[in-house]
Every structure is written in C-alpha cells, then in structure tokens.
C-alpha cells in the first residue's frame, strides 16, 4: 500500500516552536479550524500536543486531503486521531465555508505569501464569520515590518516568490493588519519565531490592544 503522506521540511522544523506558542496562548479545550493544512504534518502534531482540542483540517487542493488524512491516522487503527475530523476541501475565496461552524481558533501557516493578495481579505472575513466571540485567528510566516530591517534570506525569498508568480510575495504586516481591521479583527500580538518568521494573533476588535513579544518562541 502506497504512503500518501506528503512531506514539508519546513513544517518538520517549525512544528515544535509553533506548538509551544499554541500551548501558551490557547485554553486547554476548544475547537480549531486549520486553513491550508497542506501536507497535514502540522495538524497531526498539534492534535497530539493539544489533546483537549478538536481539529478540522482543510485545504483547497484535493491531493492534499489524502496526505492530511494519512498523517492523522492512528498507529495500527486505520482511523484518524480521535481529535481530528476528516479533512475538508475549503477555498478561503469562497463566500461560504461549508461544513465550518463556530470555532475557538483558526490557524493558517505559510499561505499569504504563496497566494494572491485578495486571499488575505477573504481569510479575515471568513475568520470574522466563524470565530467565537473570544476566538483567535493565528497566522504564521514571514512578514515585512515597517521600521525593521528585513533579513537577507527573506528578501531573497520574496524575490524568488515574485519571480515564480507576480501575485505572490511576502506581505507587509501593516497591510495584513489593515485587512483584519476591515473585517472587525485586531492584531493583538506579534510573536517573533525562529528563521525570521512571525506568529500573529488576531481577535475581535473589542477584545483589547495589540502586544509585541520579542525573541524566538
């Protein structure tokens, strides 16, 4: 039987630092939606590290769904991890996210820079529709920050992305925060992560003021 699992070296490297931040930010229990689950490595790892959370993985690509399910199979059982639901096909650009109810957290890693810019506004609008009143949207990846020198590696990465597709590229944090505000969300925290990435935490605008955490998480 063939192994349907796809593999991302980046997901392998960053899954533990991200999990440690999620364990700090999130309560013990809740329901989470992952947008653009990709290979499925993240959701499988987070589900094991946050057993009180139920995870709904999703991706717009049909071949990704098979990989996600394969990563989330319990050893020897043939079924998914008990706290992972079957992956669903979801495109953030759709006006409706079928099968998604109210969730306590939405997690999205490394999507905004490899998708056309309108996906950012669509992600924010969808999060505003589906987040519980005190829910959070968590995005992870590289960002350009005004007043902060961009790492040479990120500059080179941005150039390579734009060469592959002119609609791609590392996004300005201020622009992302503006799109969030248009949807009624506020940037509450920006957390420095290894390899010049940031984890951004958005909540509903009435929940409070943004915070900044320096240093790798």
UniProtKB/TrEMBL annotation:
Gene3D superfamilies: Vaccinia Virus protein VP39. SUPFAM superfamilies: S-adenosyl-L-methionine-dependent methyltransferases (SSF53335). It holds the Pfam family DUF938. It comes from the Bacteria. This is DUF938 domain-containing protein. It comes from Rhodoferax sediminis.
């Amino acid at each position: 039987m063939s192994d349907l699992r796809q593999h991302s070296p980046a997901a392998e490297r960053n899954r533990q630092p991200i999990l440690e931040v999620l364990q700090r930010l999130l309560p013990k229990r809740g329901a989470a939606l992952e947008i653009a689950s990709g290979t499925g490595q993240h959701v499988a790892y987070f589900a094991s590290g946050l057993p009180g959370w139920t995870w709904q993985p999703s991706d717009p690509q049909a071949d990704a769904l098979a990989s996600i399910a394969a990563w989330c199979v319990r050893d020897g059982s043939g079924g998914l991890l008990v706290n992972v639901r079957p992956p669903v096909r979801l495109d953030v650009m759709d006006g409706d996210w079928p099968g998604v109810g109210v969730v306590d957290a939405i997690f999205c890693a490394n999507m905004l820079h490899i998708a056309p810019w309108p996906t950012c506004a669509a992600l924010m609008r969808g999060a505003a529709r589906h987040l519980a009143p005190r829910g959070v949207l968590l995005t992870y990846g590289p960002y350009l920050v005004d007043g902060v020198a961009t790492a040479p590696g990120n500059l080179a990465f941005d150039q390579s992305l734009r060469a592959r597709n002119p609609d791609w590229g590392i996004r300005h944090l201020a622009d992302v925060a503006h799109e969030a505000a248009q949807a009624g969300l506020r940037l509450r925290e920006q957390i420095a992560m290894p390899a010049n990435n940031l984890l951004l935490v958005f909540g509903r605008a009435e929940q409070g003021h943004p915070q900044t955490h320096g240093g790798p998480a």
